[in-house]
Amino acid sequence: MVTLVHNYVFPLKGLPRDQISTVSEGFQFGRVSSCFFTQSRRVYVGVPPVTAIRYRIPTLMAMRDEGAKRGNRSSKQKVPHVLTVAGSDSGAGAGIQADLKACGAIGVYCSTVITAVTAQNTIGVQGVHSVPENFIDEQLRSVLSDMEVDVVKTGMLPSIGVVKVLSHRLKEFPVQALVVDPVMVSTSGDLLAGPSVLDGLREELFPMADIVTPNLKEASTLLGGVKLETVADMRSAAKSIHALGPRTVLVKGGDLPDSLDAVDIFFDGENFHELSASRIKTRNTHGTGCTLASCIAAEVAKGSSILQAVKIAKCFVESALDYSKELVIGTGPQGPFDHLFKLSSNGNSYRRQGFNPSDLFLYAVTDSRMNKKWGRSISDAVKAAIDGGATIIQLREKEAETRDFVDAAKACKEIAHSYGVPLLINDRVDVALAIDADGVHVGQSDMPAHVARRLLGPEKIIGVSCKTPEQAEQAWSDGADYIGCGGAYTTKTKENNPTVGLDGLKTVCLASKLPVVAIGGIGLGNACSVMEIGVSNLKGVAVVSALFDRECIASETRKLHSLLMDAVSRLK
Ligand SMILES: Nc1ncnc2c1ncn2[C@@H]1O[C@H](COP(=O)(O)OP(=O)(O)OP(=O)(O)O)[C@@H](O)[C@H]1O
Ligand SMILES: Cc1ncc(CO)c(N)n1
Ligand SMILES: [Mg+2]
């Protein structure tokens, strides 16, 4: 199942115990009696008869990140990186093109080694032109030797020679994880890989793979043609394929006949997980397999576990299919879908042109108690703040009934957008979705930012409250756009909220790869001191009572705006 590489056993013996972590999910082995090493840079230390301990050898990347954390702020931003080794689909629904779009949508860099060029459309595959093996090898070497790939994802590998070349290069340049989509036949029934490739996959790639993702036909072919017609069949297929060596298996049920749900079976050698999504009624399912595998790779590159990544990927495919179910591209039976969730959107006059960190400059956060105290509606308060120069609005409504909140948020969005000011919703991702707000702001105990990102899509703004460098790092890897850091000073607005002070704020700003807005007890008297900590990614201040617990919101906002302008011009 895995190769014993003795060189790697010896250094392991001296490994301090505190550098070994016990991992339950996906790391239970039937019988492991000694140490071994897989190509994906993991060392398993067997404790017979059933458990295994995992130690992840730090990747070059992790070491570089460590270096960056230790104060080398000039080091470049690390972007999670997936390399796809696959075929081009001229119709751009599947293959390399699907991989690029999927990774792009998830916010992960994707490099491409092209194994074949297909002439393909919504009707079928009209031609395949394989790239010579030595040139595939050259592409692999170019990318792997230079670009610090996190995860490799494979799609169409047209010959056994290509499989061998790839497995050789992966041994020379190990990566964190390998996702193998054993593409054999297109959904239109056209052959994309010869039968000899099967042996190559089984012998060379599966033992190195962290996950293998066959569809029903591929699972059947891998197992010598067994019939797979039910979820129970899929379970036993997953088990048999797992025995061929991969760490985990996902048998995809997109093509399962007569099923109301799209059910996939995940097996990690110990446990089965039945993953279900509603089956979207659409012709646009061309490329779902490639997309799913790329999303898994992208999520793993961002730091998810394999199972977590599969769940997120499945949800991505379901949402994308749902979003593009009416899309009409091509005349054939199998259309592509919209990975970027945008092509078919209409009627939305205000579309954000990417997040602009300078919008954090004067960040107004509403408070229902203060509005009640002064007898004004949320939308009047918002309008006044914008009149005074607020550059972004967050609606923070802890007490309102959901329906009232949705109505108020709709009204506020209209006002904010008429001034070109973005509107965010505190905590309530559902409300943000309901009114198509510009984004959300979540705290450490609210919905995790990576889940919010999945629900809201790549365009929306996501902010996360962070008090420590670790939380800031997490927010960045979760795909947030900015962080809010505080309390800068003590505040009565938010009870039980420890103050980090200006020193804490500075520490977080220095560690954060994202722009920061300071919050907590900030007002006319101290806003300048906050900005004067002088860290370039501190983009502004967020205020609640200094604006909303005042008789005239607009004039207080105006005063704060001009103070901030002065502070910033002094810093230049
Ligand atoms: N109509 C649908 N609605 C929701 N999910 C679907 C639908 N069709 C497929 N899926 C999901 O998409 C993923 C890919 O599954 P599928 O079995 O279609 O792979 P595939 O045949 O390799 O794809 P392709 O060859 O079209 O790229 C699975 O998670 C599956 O459950
Ligand atoms: C190039 C290519 N790769 C994979 C698939 C499987 O969908 C396809 N149709 N075309
Ligand atoms: Mg399919």
From TrEMBL:
Catalytic reaction annotation: 4-methyl-5-(2-phosphooxyethyl)-thiazole + 4-amino-2-methyl-5-(diphosphooxymethyl)pyrimidine + H(+) = thiamine phosphate + diphosphate; 4-amino-5-hydroxymethyl-2-methylpyrimidine + ATP = 4-amino-2-methyl-5-(phosphooxymethyl)pyrimidine + ADP + H(+); 2-(2-carboxy-4-methylthiazol-5-yl)ethyl phosphate + 4-amino-2-methyl-5-(diphosphooxymethyl)pyrimidine + 2 H(+) = thiamine phosphate + CO2 + diphosphate; 2-[(2R,5Z)-2-carboxy-4-methylthiazol-5(2H)-ylidene]ethyl phosphate + 4-amino-2-methyl-5-(diphosphooxymethyl)pyrimidine + 2 H(+) = thiamine phosphate + CO2 + diphosphate
Thiamine phosphate synthase/TenI domain sequence ranges: 362-547
Gene Ontology CC, one term: chloroplast
The organism's place on the tree of life at top rank: Eukaryota
Transmembrane portions of the chain: none
Cofactor(s) it depends on: Mg(2+)
Keywords per UniProt: ATP-binding, Chloroplast, Kinase, Magnesium, Metal-binding, Multifunctional enzyme, Nucleotide-binding, Plastid, Thiamine biosynthesis, Transferase, Transit peptide
UniProt pathway annotation: Cofactor biosynthesis; thiamine diphosphate biosynthesis; thiamine phosphate from 4-amino-2-methyl-5-diphosphomethylpyrimidine and 4-methyl-5-(2-phosphoethyl)-thiazole: step 1/1; Cofactor biosynthesis; thiamine diphosphate biosynthesis; 4-amino-2-methyl-5-diphosphomethylpyrimidine from 5-amino-1-(5-phospho-D-ribosyl)imidazole: step 2/3
A GO BP entry: thiamine biosynthetic process
Keyword set includes Lyase: no
Recorded GO MF terms: ATP binding; hydroxymethylpyrimidine kinase activity; metal ion binding; phosphomethylpyrimidine kinase activity; thiamine-phosphate diphosphorylase activity
Predominant location: plastid
Domain called Pyridoxamine kinase/Phosphomethylpyrimidine kinase: residue spans: 89-333
Locations listed in the record: Plastid, Chloroplast
Stated role: Essential for thiamine biosynthesis. Bifunctional enzyme that catalyzes the phosphorylation of hydroxymethylpyrimidine phosphate (HMP-P) to HMP-PP and condenses 4-methyl-5-(beta-hydroxyethyl)thiazole monophosphate (THZ-P) and 2-methyl-4-amino-5-hydroxymethyl pyrimidine pyrophosphate (HMP-PP) to form thiamine monophosphate (TMP).
Family assignment from sequence similarity: Belongs to the thiamine-phosphate synthase family.
Protein name: Thiamine-phosphate pyrophosphorylase
